[in-house]
Amino acid sequence: MKRLHVHVTVADLDQSVRFYSTLFAAQPTVLKDDYAKWMLEDPRVNFAISARGNAMPGIEHLGIQAETGEELADVWSRLKDAEGPVLEEGATTCCYARSEKAWITDPSGLPWETFLTTGESTTYGDSAMIRPGAGGAEGSACCVPSADKIAAAQKTAETSCCAPSSGCC
């Protein structure tokens, strides 16, 4: 069963951990100096907060977390039908986890990720997919690509000699 993912940038991590722990009646399942995550069953959500870099507080991105490869393939298929460029990032490390991941932006520019977590990581991330203005790889709230980067990746894929539409593969 898939799980909704919400990632919020916060100004004060300790204060926010106390608030959300009280709101959810649960302690975080992951707690780092700059990041916390609750894997809740009711409501079924992967709720993460971070206080990294100079990102403005608020919703950083939304997502759908798959629990199996089949669910991920189903969601990725729907992404491709959603009338927007899709950036298939593939295997990456972000938010102290290893994942298979793809990105799309909604019509208003809000980033959505679809992912399957494949393991834990001791580092925040290795992705170069950073949203401009988020402070770069070390300072970003998460490894969120910009809408321009998603569109550019899709355009590159469409014009590549190995793109399905090229007829060469």
From TrEMBL:
Protein name according to UniProt: Catechol 2,3-dioxygenase-like lactoylglutathione lyase family enzyme
Tree of life domain: Bacteria
Gene3D superfamilies, A to Z: 2,3-Dihydroxybiphenyl 1,2-Dioxygenase, domain 1
InterPro entries per the UniProt record, alphabetical: ArsI/CadI-like, Cadmium-induced_rsp, Glyas_Bleomycin-R_OHBP_Dase, Glyas_Fos-R_dOase_dom, VOC_core
Any Gene Ontology biological process: response to cadmium ion
The species this protein was found in: Novispirillum itersonii
Source species taxonomy: Bacteria, Pseudomonadati, Pseudomonadota, Alphaproteobacteria, Rhodospirillales
GO molecular function: dioxygenase activity; lyase activity
Matching SUPFAM superfamilies: Glyoxalase/Bleomycin resistance protein/Dihydroxybiphenyl dioxygenase
Keywords from the UniProt entry: Dioxygenase, Lyase, Oxidoreductase
Pfam families, A to Z: Glyoxalase
Chain ranges of the VOC domain: 2-117
PROSITE patterns: VOC (PS51819)
